[in-house]
Amino acid sequence: MTNSREMPFNPGFEINPTFSPMGFEYGNDVFGPKVENRMLNDIRKSLMNPTCEGPEIVYSIAMDVGKKEHKALLEKMHLLYGVVTYAAGRLGDEPIRSQGHIHKVSPYSGWSTPEVYEIWSGEAIIYMQEYAEDHPGRCFAVYAKAGEVVIVPPYWAHATISANPELPLTFGAWCDREYGFVYDGVRAHGGIAWFPVFNSENKIEWRANSQYQTSELICKTPNDYSALGIEAGKSIYEIFEKDPDTFLYVPSPQLREDVWKNFIP
């Protein structure tokens, strides 16, 4: 695997990100699709500087991966595991990041669905805001390192940001099998409510997007998600393998409606 890179965190199944071209190599007992690439031109309208320079391929996505022995079970449970790897570098003065979206309302549950992120390598910021409307509501920037988990609740707009331009970022996530992304609100406001920007010391600062009403950004580390089945030091795939019902709230968020009220990530 000369084209793959070692990861500091073991996700619980055999998979390695590659860098030339960007993508993933799967172990013999692992299934997974050919990656989809997100190009810089795809996300320009949601950047603070839409004319910036950066990697042509910003990130690569493989939706629906896992151990072959679990494939039928995952389909039955309406659960899907997705993996993403980001290029190193930056987008002008901004970090490599996604443009921001809300999960569509799933025909399966009638809800916009949550997402359970797990960072494998690099340094991430999971940015989220309650709404993609003129007033974004509560806004959080959750800083996470390899092995840490961040959960995005139903209906929230969110974006994934690579906090270290020297390192590629790779992560996995539990998603609803009928996933879909709604970009309209974020794009109508020219991006998320707070833009991450590198300062002269290569540290991220936040600048308010003037197309939204005034809001406050809370920067923090990941919350304790033990109420949602997360165990420190154990990968989210291993948790699923031990007890598949743990993540039923992903395709069926109404099962944990109590947790989503006043949720703090």
UniProtKB/TrEMBL annotation:
Provenance organism: Bacteroides clarus YIT 12056
Family to which this protein belongs: Belongs to the archaeal-type GPI family.
Assigned keywords, A-Z: Gluconeogenesis, Glycolysis, Isomerase
Domain of life according to the entry: Bacteria
A molecular function GO annotation: isomerase activity
Domain Glucose-6-phosphate isomerase prokaryote: 56-203
Pathway info: Carbohydrate degradation; glycolysis; D-glyceraldehyde 3-phosphate and glycerone phosphate from D-glucose: step 2/4
Lineage of the organism: Bacteria, Pseudomonadati, Bacteroidota, Bacteroidia, Bacteroidales
Protein name, per record: glucose-6-phosphate isomerase
Annotated SUPFAM superfamilies: RmlC-like cupins
InterPro entries, per the entry: G6P_isomerase_prok (IPR010551), RmlC-like_jellyroll (IPR014710), RmlC_Cupin_sf (IPR011051)
EC annotation from Swiss-Prot or TrEMBL: 5.3.1.9
Catalytic activity entry: alpha-D-glucose 6-phosphate = beta-D-fructose 6-phosphate
